[in-house]
Design brief:
The complex is a heterodimer of chains A (352) and B (382). With 352 residues, chain A is an alpha+beta fold. Chain A is built from 11 helices and 10 strands. A 4-stranded mixed sheet of chain A has the order 1-4-5-8, covered by helices on one side. The chains are: A alpha+beta (352), B alpha+beta (382).
Chain lengths: 352, 382
């Protein structure tokens, strides 16, 4: 896909997202200067509809940015901010600017206190929470999805991290929101878990493309027994397997991105996240096998990518969560045959 | 990375009306067709079924109208193909001709060849087989020894082909053989259109597979005379012609739906009462199937645009074979019910058939090892 915004992101990340920047981020240093450039380039607004201040990029293209960010191991909440802005805009809420993040809000309890909404419960494993200004989540009040925009500085949280060393913070919530910070969604968007699963599927596909490229390069460069190890059939076949898994994951993630805001979204995201998680295991393992001991070190850059794809398996639903959801849908489908479920519900959304 | 990018199939290519028509047709035609016959997938043979399908305009769909085709696009054909496979319809009688021999003749044939043959393919009347493998030339196609020697008015063929699926019933073979010597390993090869019903000195003997089925044959050419107009395409161009067929041969839904009858049987058993673990396995299977289907449709879209996605096709076939070969294992992990060949319990019979069929899925149409070598080369190795 020819895309100006993709080219811009590619250049920006290529120039600035270095091994050293990822190392520093993993040791707790937020790359502020790069964030400013990302925001100035407008990348965080790409999924916002035109009438809400966006610039009319088709959703599949806007979401394609997240694959590129994944391919560079970007240690910043671009994906989270992109989704948060789109959700806020859909609920006609103000876009605060700056770094935002998203959290699964399905387990929150909401109650009305006068004109305001009180939220209590836990938000767990919230990506980049301590680097964000606000956490955006979706929770149910009176049977309707509400968007909550929570200012991070008033929240207390227990810092933790994911496998790649990126912030994943737990937050105990007992907070009455400002009136403008809790707004019903005019139409369902599928919940934050689903939107989160989409962004991780895309990023995983991108990171796996980089892992594959690094592995090809290494196999062509590394000489043993008098020839590049890429000449050995065992290595070639492992790389071919990696390519197949990567291609399948990218196709799955792009199928989900292409169905954003359509009835097919629910099941295509489930398939994409499940497929990405399964592929992450195989691709990561084979990449390390090809790289040998050097790839198992801190100094080599491979781990920044493999740890990300392994960590992302657990964000916004594991493979087990998503395959169960998909399997339940298949087994309880009203269609006569499984085939009709695949061609009809899975591809186009469940019947109303 | 272009190899891992499968552009989405063009929008508006679901063709729901067509799909519905095909389903209605299949529901009638196959009303009494039992699961154990559906399990044969695209190996099921019925000239009668192929002819009826053609009467509906669903054979040779992409062929031009002047050759009896229907000038429809590759994604419409895709809808028909996948519906046939999902239903386990007996399609092999027209399948190979419709998939690759017809398009090959249209692309490389003489006007006379096109006029003589293609309308009869589109009518569902002709069964084609492919004469490629030989006793000493399996994966290594360039080791082909069968030789066509130019003689007055045509060629004399000598050599032996093996694993020739349905040669014993086919009307035509697309024969791949040598027509000359060449320093280039891939040079000096040509393709011929062999009229099996009207050519003398061809001996076809069955090779029975381990399941007791007769699909394979050995085909011996013993000084067999073929007229000049049997040459298909350019003399010496055989290698590149064969290579351009491969994207058609390797990317279709038959590369991941061959075990589909067992999937339907399995789901029927689990439907009302599945544990969470069973749900998860069916979900995983669904995810794989949804993604393979999208990749395969993507390749159909690329073919429709006249591109040559042979590398993407190799990826689809490699992943597809893993998927369809894994179905018996999956079934066994979810349901404890022994396989019984020809048994009266349809699950048990379909499981038995499928268990014996799956080893061939990563052999036919290019072995797993060959495909992975092709993919690796596409990645920039070797």
């Amino acid at each position: 896909m020819e895309s100006m915004i993709h080219d811009m992101a590619e250049r920006l990340f290529r120039d600035h997202v270095t091994h050293r920047l990822r190392e520093k981020a993993a040791s707790g240093h937020c790359p502020e200067a790069l964030w400013t450039q990302i925001e100035e380039a407008g990348l965080t607004m790409a999924l916002v509809p035109e009438n809400a201040g966006g610039f009319g990029v088709p959703p599949a293209e806007a979401l394609g940015l997240l694959r590129i960010a994944g391919a560079h191991g970007l240690p910043l909440p671009l994906a989270e901010t992109l989704i948060a802005n789109a959700v806020l805009a859909t609920a006609n809420m103000a876009l605060p600017g700056g770094r935002l993040t998203i959290a699964e809000g399905e387990a929150l309890r909401l109650e009305r206190r006068g004109k305001r909404v009180h939220a209590s419960g836990h938000l767990t494993l919230v990506p980049f929470a301590r680097w964000a200004n606000r956490i955006v989540t979706i929770a149910v009040l009176d049977g309707t999805d509400h968007v909550l925009s929570l200012p991070v500085k008033v929240l207390s949280f227990a810092p933790a991290q994911d496998l790649a060393g990126m912030p994943r913070d737990d937050i105990k919530l007992d907070h009455t929101l400002a009136e403008t910070d809790a707004v019903p969604l005019p139409r369902p968007m599928g919940g934050m878990r689903r939107l989160g699963a989409l962004i991780r599927s895309l990023a995983t596909a991108g990171a796996m493309e980089t892992i594959l490229e690094m592995s090809i390069q290494y196999a062509n460069d590394r000489v043993q027994f008098g020839r590049p190890i890429g000449k050995f059939q065992a290595i070639q076949h492992n790389l071919a397997t990696m390519a197949g898994e990567t291609a399948a994951s990218r196709t799955a993630a792009e199928m989900a991105a292409g169905s954003y805001d359509t009835p097919a979204f629910a099941l295509t995201v489930a398939a994409a996240k499940a497929r990405a998680g399964e592929a992450a295991e195989k691709v990561g393992a084979l990449a390390h096998q090809i790289h040998g001991a050097i790839g198992y070190t801190q100094e080599h850059t491979l781990h920044h990518f493999t740890k990300r794809i392994w960590g992302w398996r657990d964000d916004f639903g594991t493979e087990l969560d998503w395959t169960r959801e998909l399997g339940r849908a298949a087994l309880s489908s009203p269609h006569d045959t499984f085939w009709h479920f695949i061609t009809d519900s899975a591809a186009k959304g469940a019947p109303a | 990375m272009t190899l891992t990018a499968f552009s989405p199939p063009p929008p508006g290519t679901d063709f729901d009306d067509l799909r519905q028509e095909v389903r209605t047709f299949l529901a009638e035609e196959l009303a009494d067709f039992p699961p154990e016959k559906r399990a044969k997938s695209w190996n099921g043979f019925s000239r009668d079924f192929s002819r009826k399908l053609a009467q509906r305009g669903w054979v040779g769909m992409t062929f031009p109208k002047e050759y009896g085709g229907h000038a429809r696009n590759a994604l419409e054909r895709y809808v028909v193909s996948e519906e046939l496979l999902a239903a386990g319809a007996p399609v092999i009688s027209h399948w190979i001709a419709d998939r690759q021999s017809g398009p090959l003749i249209l692309a490389k044939g003489t006007d006379d060849q096109k006029r003589r043959i293609v309308p009869r393919i589109a009518a569902g009347e002709l069964c084609f087989c492919i004469g490629m493998s030989e006793p000493d030339s399996g994966s290594d196609l360039a080791a082909t020894r069968t030789m066509a020697t130019e003689v007055d008015g045509g060629f004399r063929i000598n050599g032996t082909k093996v694993w020739t699926t349905y040669a014993h019933v086919a009307d035509y073979m697309i024969l791949f053989c040598r027509t000359g010597k060449s320093d280039d390993r891939h040079g000096g090869m040509s393709q011929f259109l062999v009229d099996l019903k009207a050519t003398d000195n061809i001996q076809i003997t069955p090779i029975i597979d381990l399941g007791g089925e007769h699909h394979f044959n050995q085909v011996v050419f013993d000084d067999t005379f073929l007229p000049s107009d049997a040459l298909l395409g350019g003399k010496g161009e055989g290698w590149s012609q064969v290579m351009s067929e491969l994207a058609f041969e390797r990317s279709g839904p038959e590369r991941f739906l061959s075990s589909f009858a067992l999937i339907e049987e399995l789901i029927r058993l689990l439907r009302d009462d599945a544990t969470e673990a069973q749900q998860a396995e069916i979900g995983r299977l669904s995810a794989h199937l949804m993604v393979l289907r999208q990749m395969s449709r993507s390749v159909a879209g690329m073919l429709n645009e006249g591109e040559n996605p042979s590398l993407q096709a190799a990826i689809v076939k490699d992943l597809g074979a893993l998927f369809e070969q894994d179905i018996p294992r999956l079934a066994r992990s979810l349901v404890s019910r022994p396989a019984v060949p020809g048994g009266s319990d349809s699950y048990a019979a379909v499981l038995a058939y499928t268990e014996l069929a799956v080893p061939s899925f990563s052999l036919r149409g290019g072995t797993r090892e060959i495909l992975r070598g092709i993919i690796a080369r596409g990645l920039g190795l070797r």
